TrEMBL record:
Record's GO cellular component terms: cytosol
Pfam families: HTH_1 (PF00126), LysR_substrate (PF03466)
Family: Belongs to the LysR transcriptional regulatory family.
Domain spans labelled HTH lysR-type: 8-62
Lineage: superkingdom: Bacteria
Keywords per UniProt: DNA-binding, Transcription, Transcription regulation
Keyword Metal-binding recorded: no
Any one GO molecular-function label of the UniProt entry: DNA-binding transcription factor activity
Protein name from the UniProt record: LysR family transcriptional regulator
Length: 304
């Protein structure tokens, strides 16, 4: 930025534009309104251009003011991105990696991908964050995560993604439950029993809501929780039917604590998981390697 533009002065101008007034901008910045007025006046004298104009009780930016404010905002974003990248490079072999993983995919990710990655990059810091589909999408869009492994319907076409079959969605029950002996279970049969729901922010629950709606039914749970482990515990206790892929409950199924019965519905059988990334986010070598491991794992799994 040239000497005639002082970043602090322009940051004041930007906040005035965002807040719609000098006093409100001063409250946000924690400075006296007269300080903001003097600095913007100095900037106007330097540029020999008006930067603010009054409209009613509000103050708005002039065309010149908007140009300066927009440049400040874009420069701030670039600087934040640079700072994140430099922070990453403090770690060895290409930096830190942050990945969002759907709760029902955590075991699969750790056992089949992360262990291999750790052998190749033992000194890289890896942050694994589990959460809802919506929180995962927001983190990728906002650049808070390098990549994501998610399950459920995807509504953001701007993200780069690879999708793979990860069904069927199953009714997961105690071995003594009335539906435990079935090869598949219909939506109508499910509707006769007590159901366990995840919050609607989970991609899997969105699928379940859509499955019931397609039959003219409302998914009405007896219990709602925000963790797969809680849903499985409720199901093991015979409290109702939980819903997830068999892979998500594989340990408890293998110990005969739960039974997974596939749901007889196209949405359940065609459910997919997704690898997601923001195309604008540059990968470090470590991030790129983890992305490739994820791609290879799911491609090979679906070729078997």
């Amino acid at each position: 930025m040239s000497q005639m533009f002082h970043e602090k002065h322009i940051s004041y101008l930007y906040q005035v534009g965002v807040q719609g007034g000098i006093r409100r901008a001063a409250d946000v910045l924690g400075v006296n309104p007269s300080v903001i007025s003097r600095q913007i006046a100095l900037l106007e004298r330097t540029l020999q251009l008006p930067l603010l104009e009054r409209r009613g009780r509000s103050v708005v930016l002039t065309e010149a003011g908007k140009l300066l404010a927009d440049d400040y905002y874009e420069s701030s974003l670039r600087r934040e991105k640079l700072e994140r990248h430099l922070k990453d490079l403090r770690y060895m072999k290409g930096g830190a990696v942050t990945i969002r993983v759907g709760a029902g995919l955590v075991d699969t990710f750790i056992q089949h991908v992360l262990t291999t990655f750790a052998a190749a990059y033992p000194n890289v810091f890896v942050e694994v964050v589990s959460g809802t589909m919506q929180a995962t999408m927001d983190a990728i869009v906002q650049g808070e995560a390098d990549m994501a492994l998610a399950f459920g319907p995807i509504g953001n076409p701007e993200l780069k993604r690879h999708s793979f079959p990860w069904g069927p969605i199953c009714a997961v029950v105690n071995p003594q439950h009335p539906i435990a002996h079935l090869r598949t279970v219909s939506v109508e049969e499910l509707n006769r029993h007590r159901l366990i729901s995840l919050s609607d922010a989970f991609g899997l629950q969105r699928h379940m809501n859509a499955i019931f709606q397609s039959k003219g039914l409302l998914f009405t749970p007896s219990y709602r929780c925000n963790q797969f482990t809680t849903a499985m515990s409720l199901s093991m206790a015979g409290m109702g039917i939980a819903f997830m892929s068999a892979q998500a409950a594989i340990e408890r199924i293998s110990h005969k604590m739960l039974v997974a019965v596939p749901i007889d519905h196209p949405i359940a059988t065609e459910a997919q998981c997704h690898l997601l990334r923001n195309s604008d986010r540059r990968f470090t070598p470590a991030s790129h390697h983890l992305w490739q491991l994820l791609l290879n794992f799911f491609q090979q799994k679906n070729e078997r």
